[in-house]
Every structure is written in C-alpha cells, then in structure tokens.
Amino acid sequence: MTEEERLAKNNKIREKGKETRLRRQSQNCRVFRVKIDFSHLNEFEKTQLKMIFVEAKWLYNDVLTFSKSNEINEYDDKITIIKGLDKDKQPVTRELENLSSQMRQSVIQGVKHNIKSLSAMKKHGRKIGNLKYKSNYESINLQQYGKTYKFCDKKHIKIQGIKRPIKIEGAEQFFDISELEFANAKLLNLPDAYYVAVTTFQNKGDETKKYKPEIGIDMGIKTSITTSEGQKIKVFVGETKRLKKIQHRIAKKKKGSSNRYKLRKLLRREYQKLDNRKKDKANKIVHELLEHEKIYMQDENLSGWHKGLFGKNIQHSALGIIKAKLMKNKRVVVLPKNVATTKTCPKCGRINKDITLSDRIFECQCGYKEDRDIHAARNMILLSKMNKNTCGTQEIFYPNAFGEDVRRKHEQKCCNADLVELGSPNFYKRG
Ligand SMILES: [Zn+2]
Which sign, positive or negative, has the C-alpha torsion 319, 323, 329, 331? Predict the structure, then answer.
C-alpha cells in the first residue's frame, strides 16, 4: 500500500466513524445475550472453543511481557508462535491455531487499552499497580457483524474461525425486532456456559408512547421495593440447596488439592446461575417500572447495607442491578442521599427525627399516619418536586462508533418538574 492509499483509507474510516456516531444519537442501545449450546458441538469444536480462550490468554500475557521492556505499538500483531513457560517453569513454544486475526487484534487492543487507562489514572493522581497476568481469559471482542460473527437464523450463529454454525439459545428475544442493527459482540467464557453478548441499536420510536402516571419507589431491605401506589416487590433470589451443599463439601477438602479445584469450578458455575436469575428478575422489574412516565427514587447507599446487618439479604437481591439500570434512564429522577424521605411528614412538613428502622408505620403529631415504605415512596415524588436542585446526578453512557458503552462523567440532570408546596393537596389525591 502506498502512503497515499493509506491516508485515503484512514480518511474513509474516520468519515465512516463520524457517520456512525451521528446515527447512534437517534438510536437506543441494547445488549442481548445468547447462550451457546455446548452439547451440540462435536469434540473438535468443543476443543476449538476452549482453545480460543486459552490462546487469547497466552497472547495477552505475551503482549504484557513485551510491553514491559518495549513500545507496545511495535508488537507484531501477525504473531502465531508464542514463547512461554509451562506450569513447571520450563520454556515452551505455543502456536496460535484457533484465534482468528480479528480476535488477535482485539486481544492486543485490550492490553493497549488497559495500559492507557492505567496511565490516565496515574495522571489524575490515583495510586496504581502493575497490570497483572491473566490466568483466565473471559471475554473476546467480535468486532464486526457480518465478518467476525453473524446470525444465520434464530438458532445458529457463525463465528470466525469455527467452521460450522453454532447452535444457540435465546435469540428469540431480539430476532423478530424490525430494523435492529447489530454492532460488535463479545464471546464470553463464563463459569456456567459460553455466551455471545450482542450489542444492538434500534431507532428511537416516536415519543408518543402512552405511559402510566409517575411513580415513586423506595428501596428497603425487607420487602425490597415499595412503590407509591402501594405495591411491594420482592427482589430476593435465594441460594439453591446445591450451592450450600457444594460450599459444605469444599470446606472439607484439602487446600490446593485437585478435588477442591474441581469443586470450586462447580461453585463458580452455581454462582453464575444465581447471577443469571438475579439479572432476569431485575430486567423484568425494571421493564415494569419504566412503563411509568417518570420514576422517582433516592440514591441509596446499597454498598453500605452490604457491610451492615443485612449483608446476606442484599447480596442475594437484585436491588443493585435494578438501581444501576434505572439510573441510566432519562425518565428517572434521583434524589440525593441526604434528603429525609422517611422522616418528612408530607402533610405538615415536620421532620420526625426519632423514627427508627423498626418503626413500620410512620406517624406524625399532626395526625398523619401511613405505612412507612409507601410513605417514603410517595415522598420521593413530593420532595423531588419541591426543589429543582435535588434531582441529583446521573451517570450517562454513550456508545462509541463500535457500539461499546463508553463511561462518561456524572452529569447533572434536572427533572424540570413543576414546583409544589409541601403539604399541598395535589399530592395525595392519587394512590
Ligand atoms: Zn405531620
């Protein structure tokens, strides 16, 4: 390629990126996950899928070693033979047979990206350590739809480097949506199975959708979510008996033994399943809540609850996922932590300081009485409307040209709601 051709090509890529970014502004981003049906693969394909991640690990670690004494941009990205050490510290050479060229690129890009973000953190005065070698590679980027991966039909996906299309489960959730645009995907090696997480974009529909009236939600430990309409939603996902059994068996095995290692693998798989169930529950609840025109909530400190009395309850609840998902949405108004949503009386405006966690009924001297959680949920709406500046901040995610979510700074947002007077009759007419 001549210098001129190279510049022309770069220019074309840049233009294309600009175009995509512009288009993305009028689109919604959603990520779907499909599960690879491992049992339908033949022995060769099973090994191949496994080896893709092993080779990615070798490559990652090799690039990392290289970067310690060289400029990382000088790393030969066409490399196929890698020198390393086996588990007895003996030198070995390994061949990359299953990693496609695009996958190789994405692994190298991964190291570059990690180094870059570390140095950015250092620049901002954060304490940083060294990048660690990986013992397990979990996620490989499939950059381009149509090239690195492609859906053949509802049940099959083609992945670069693997000859036959692979059987998948779960594509029904998005396959029939019209005008869905596929961006990049990630091949995931999770403890319970292999997955492909696909990033998709869809044009924002017309904004005339009929929403249900606004709603306030209170997150609590006991019933977990209470709405201003009086509904109580349980978000607890219990441990399975099998999980407890495995934990029990591990405790009896000797440290470092291969039996213990096997059991720990099983345990990771059980936790992954638990996680999947949590996510599923969270998705359903969030979907339900977002049917409302506006959702008012408080930026509660869930991680504080982790440490306290309710650790186990919180650990097995989908509350954290729900909160994170809600906070990404524009129609959600977030009250800061320090607003006294439980203690404020909506009728007279008194702040009842002596109310404790065990009081399940809120009672005020003025005669107002209500279930504590429902009361708090209703106050979310009321107190948000009282002060325009209490809307809080929200973390906003923007997709880049490749459809990946890029985290940006917290942005101040405001609900622009009409101000209401405390204790005004407007509020308690509903629900
Ligand atoms: Zn009162």
Answer: positive
Q: Judge whether 165 and 152 are in contact, CB under 8 Å.
A: yes
d(CA 145, CA 159): 10
Residue 424 has pLDDT above 70, yes or no: no
Closest CA to 110 of 145, 70, 147, 72: 72
Task: Find where tokens 């492609």 sit.
Answer: 150
Distance between Cα 27 and ligand 1 center (Å): 46
Name residue 397's beta-bridge partners. Answer: 407
Q: How far apart are CA 148 and CA 146, in angstroms?
A: 6
Short-list 201, 184, 211, CA closest to 402:
184
Q: pLDDT at position 222, please? A: 61
Predicted confidence (pLDDT) per residue in 382-406, tens digit = 888 775 444 444 444 444 444 455 4
The C-alpha R_g of the chain, in whole angstroms, comes to 26
**pLDDT for the residue numbered 57:** 93
Burial 19-46 (b: 16+ CB within 10 A, else e): ebeeebeebebeebbbbbbeeebeeeee
- The helix or strand, by DSSP H or E, that contains position 361, with its residue range, turns out to be strand 361-363
Compute the distance from residue 289 Cα to the ligand 1 centre, in Å: 29
For residue 415, the model assigns a pLDDT of 42
pLDDT for 314 equals: 57
The DSSP bridge partners found for residue 219 are 225
Torsion angle of the four alpha carbons 6, 7, 8, 12, in this order, in degrees rounded to the nearest 10: 100
202 beta partners: 28
| The total number of residues written for the chain in this structure | 431
Task: State how far the Cα of 350 lies from the Cα of 363, in Å rounded to an integer.
Answer: 11
Q: How far is CA 191 from CA 34, 138, 170, 265, 269, in A?
A: 15, 9, 18, 7, 5
Say how far apart CA 30 and CA 387 lie, in whole Å: 33
Tokens of 337: 């932590």
Ligand 1: distance of its center to the CA of 295 in Å? 25
Tokens representing 58 are 């070798």
Interval between CA 164 and ligand 1 midpoint (Å): 69
In contact, 140 and 106? CB cutoff 8 Å: yes
Q: H or E stretch including 226?
A: strand 225-227
Please give the single-letter amino acid code of residue 29. C
The dihedral region occupied by 232, where left means phi > 0, alpha psi between -120 and 50, and beta the remainder, is beta
Distance 357 CA to ligand 1 centre (A): 19
Contact assessment for residue 68 and residue 30, using Cβ atoms and an 8 Å cutoff: no
Q: What is the pLDDT of residue 17?
A: 87
Residue 304's pLDDT band, with cuts at 50, 70 and 90, is low
